[in-house]
Write a structure and sequence with these properties.
By secondary structure, this protein is mainly alpha-helical. It is built from 19 helices and five strands. It has a five-stranded mixed β-sheet with strand order 2-1-3-5-4, with helices on both faces.
Length: about 475
């Protein structure tokens, strides 16, 4: 049955469809937004290599490892596999990564609605789902990144596990297992959500067999992820000698870094998750749950907060730097916002706060629907580089740690900071490793720099291309 909420009289599925359609704007644009283009191109180049080279999915590879193979430790590449598979059907495109993520995230949002509705009220579920839809999830749902993708798979898994406990049908146990397996593999931090399975412990006497099977399958479900992240990734690093993906730090170091960057850590919750009004409504919801002694909500708060604290500690200062690290916790925040809004009796205040949160979030996402023109010059550089270089020629780009230009230029090679070009034997050392061309980007990804070696072939206001003579 499609749920209707009287205060708006709009089906939740229509709301989710509206947000889905809204995010289709610019869905075909290359991953050249100002924010997190580097993270998207890391995903896309792995997909591209599956498509161009081979389908050995256990050996994901990137393009900025110079003359090495580029095989590197990373998340299990489920999203990358789906993107590469779409290339086989539709050809190479900019849409697949964004659209696959958007579709799966939309399913995850509906699973979230159903899960909250089953344990609270339809109105709380409705409000919480809309708040989650316009939160940081809104924009990351249309990026070629595995964060909301993996979180949504976990959400769907939790819904099916819950359905198994309520209805005792084995098909829900199987579905919960597989969605959870792929969600955890796709992004290990999303596994923290399975701490909510502990909420079923009090039901052991009533559903002893079901609870046992639930926890047994959850343990089995986690084994492939532990193998991939804690054994296979170590093997890839040891064998292929290249690492780029951050895979966590010690809890002690993470604690020290979080304390040292506490202001930025606070901003992840106050600003990035669902903006300021949303954050204060989250605090309001918590205070209400405490005052009303809502044991279920408080249990959810304690379990998820303690579990997410481990994720924060493993992330350290990266949590304070990258806003997408907050994504796994935002569904919890949205639940408390929905709970708080549900208890506001004055209509004018309810509607004011509800729509302020929506518009405050949506307006702050507008900039991400267009590409940065300073970054887009790399597409023009690609056209000219293709006329003078062979596909297998290795290149060097002055984009620092950002691999996006390597991806869009269509070559493998190295990344460099501007100061490295001033080092006396730096270019000679790369020439010995097979470097053929240097691409200098004067804006966007890099700043103007003059290589101490190389013949200038193309000079434009935005970029220059040099050919490096072979060393004798």
């Amino acid at each position: 049955m499609i749920d209707r909420i009287k205060f708006l009289k709009v089906d939740i599925l229509w709301i989710l469809l509206f947000f889905f359609m809204l995010r289709l704007y610019g869905i075909d644009l290359p991953a050249l937004e100002t924010m997190h283009n580097w993270r998207q191109t890391c995903v896309l180049m792995v997909s591209q290599n599956f498509f161009d080279l081979d389908w050995r999915i256990w050996l994901p590879r990137v393009d900025f490892a110079g003359n090495l193979s580029g095989i590197t430790p990373m998340e299990f590449p489920l999203l990358n596999i789906l993107i590469a598979g779409s290339y086989e059907i539709f050809g190479e495109n900019h849409i697949s990564g964004r659209l696959i993520n958007l579709f799966v995230t939309s399913l995850g949002l509906y699973a979230y609605f159903l899960l909250v509705r089953n344990h609270f009220t339809p109105k709380i579920a409705y409000l919480s789902t809309i708040i989650l839809s316009v939160s940081i999830w809104f924009i990351f749902a249309r990026k070629s990144m595995p964060d909301t993708f993996a979180a949504s798979l976990v959400m769907i898994s939790l819904y099916y596990y819950d359905a198994y406990i309520r209805l005792s049908q084995s098909k829900f146990l199987v579905l919960g297992f597989f969605f959870g397996l792929f969600g955890m593999l796709s992004k290990l931090p999303m596994a923290y959500g399975f701490c909510l399975l502990l909420l079923y412990l009090p039901k052991c006497s009533e559903h002893k067999k079901s609870i046992f099977l639930l926890y047994f399958t959850a343990i089995v479900m986690s084994m492939p992820s532990f193998y991939w992240y804690f054994h296979w990734n170590g093997h890839l690093l040891e064998t292929y000698k290249f690492s780029h993906y951050f895979l966590g730090m010690s809890l002690k170091q993470g604690f020290s870094e979080l304390v040292g960057h506490w202001r930025f850590v606070l901003l992840r919750f106050m600003e990035d998750a669902m903006k300021y009004i949303g954050f204060f409504l989250y605090l309001f919801g918590i205070s209400l749950a405490i005052s009303k002694k809502n044991k279920k909500l408080l249990a959810i708060l304690v379990l998820t907060s303690l579990s997410f604290l481990v994720i924060m500690l493993k992330g350290g200062h990266f949590f304070s730097l990258q806003n997408y690290y907050i994504i796994p916790y935002v569904p919890v925040m949205a639940l408390f916002v929905g709970y708080g809004l549900n208890h506001i009796d004055k209509k004018w205040l309810f509607y004011s706060l509800f729509f302020i949160v929506i518009f405050e979030n949506l307006l702050n996402h507008v900039h991400d629907f267009r590409i940065n023109p300073d970054l887009a010059v790399v597409l023009d550089a690609r056209k000219e580089l293709d006329l003078i270089a062979h596909q297998k020629d290795l290149i060097l780009v002055n984009s620092g740690d950002n691999p996006s230009p390597i991806y869009f230029l269509g070559h493998k090679g190295w990344l460099a900071h501007s100061y490295e070009f001033e080092q006396e034997h730096y270019l000679d050392s790369l020439a010995n490793l097979g470097l053929s061309y240097i691409v200098i980007l004067n804006k966007g990804f890099g700043t103007s720099v003059q290589p101490n070696r190389g013949n200038l072939l193309i000079k434009r206001q935005e970029y220059s291309i040099y050919q490096l003579p072979k060393l004798k």
